Amino acid sequence: MFPVSTFSEYDVRPCRYIQHCMHIGPFKLRNNIALAPMAGLTDVPFRSLAWRFGVGYMVSEMVASQPQLWDTGKSSLRRVPVPGAFPVAVQIAGTEPQVMADAARRHVDSGVQVIDINFGCPAKKVCKKSAGSALLADSAQIGRIVEAVARAVDVPVTVKTRTGLTPNDDLGVVAGVIAAAAGAQLIVMHGRSKGCKFVGQIDYRNVRRLKQAVSIPVLVNGDITDVASAAIALEQSQADGLMIGRAAIGRPWLFAELAGSDVPSLREKWQVVLAHICAMHEFYGEEAGVRIARKHIAAYFAELGVAKPTRTMQTIAKADEQISMLRQIADRQLIDDAQNLVDAA
């Protein structure tokens, strides 16, 4: 097996997309490329890979603010920090200022260095509780939440939001300005509205309006999949940096590409896949690790040009069998790749 620890961190080379002077409060980030928090995807094993491939800033998966959920298995695992990564940032969600403030205080007491507040999630189960992007309908409440959290802790408070409730409003800009005035020290804006979810044309104009309206750093998020789209997002938004989400799943080396570093060879990519899945087995335990790994395997297959996972792959319940099948698929692809090189010569 290939443990994650066998991979050294990638050197971040000079690149016109990279800035090394970006700060969140007192913390100087190693660059201005961030990994978006995505529940069920950007866990400790994945964030460990993203950090090694050069990402400059990461936020944990979203954690509920209610105290009764603090000690659940899911919340506990989401709060685990990535060794060596800094600053330690956790995203919280909720609707009540005092509950959010209390949650932020608990996180800081446990060692968290940045509190991020979710005003951007469009998921139905979050919005039906009037949390996430649903709060864009009540900008005054956003201000109250940010102010309460910022007063409760002595670490930077940041927010993630969307352009608005619909493509035709600018409620995200309004929310961002209010959040900055209430004490937020960084804002991430996804270039779609709550109503768009993740579908349709991206529009960075409101990100640009927000950047022009506040004096704190702004990161642009949404449809950034490669160097070319990163350049477009930065040019159109005039943001201070990038936040990458779905495009990194199955492709953690995307951060190396954006940072101007060498991209792994096919053999090295398969080593990354095996290291990642092994790390998931270790982090979650065999039963949960094998199950949770399946969505990452499907993403890796799509990226590497492998057929979709078979029913056999999807029903494997043992860690060693999952790794064995991945090794077999990797070996076949590497042999085919070598033969293609011979034929081309």
Word description of this protein:
The protein has 345 residues and is α/β, with parallel strands linked by helices. It contains 13 helices and eleven strands. The protein has helices at residues 44-52, 73-78, 97-109, 124-127, 139-152, 171-182, 205-213, 227-237, 254-258, 266-284, 286-304, 311-315, 319-344; strands spanning 23-24, 27-28, 33-35, 57-58, 63-64, 89-93, 114-119, 157-162, 186-190, 218-221, 241-244. The strands form two sheets. Strands 4-3-11-10-9-8-7-6-5 form a nine-stranded parallel β-sheet. Strands 1-2 form a two-stranded antiparallel sheet. Strand 8, helix 6 (171-182) and strand 9 form a beta-alpha-beta unit. Helix 10 (266-284) runs antiparallel to helix 11 (286-304). The protein is globular and about 60 Å long. The two termini are 33 Å apart. The model is unreliable at 1-6 (pLDDT under 50).
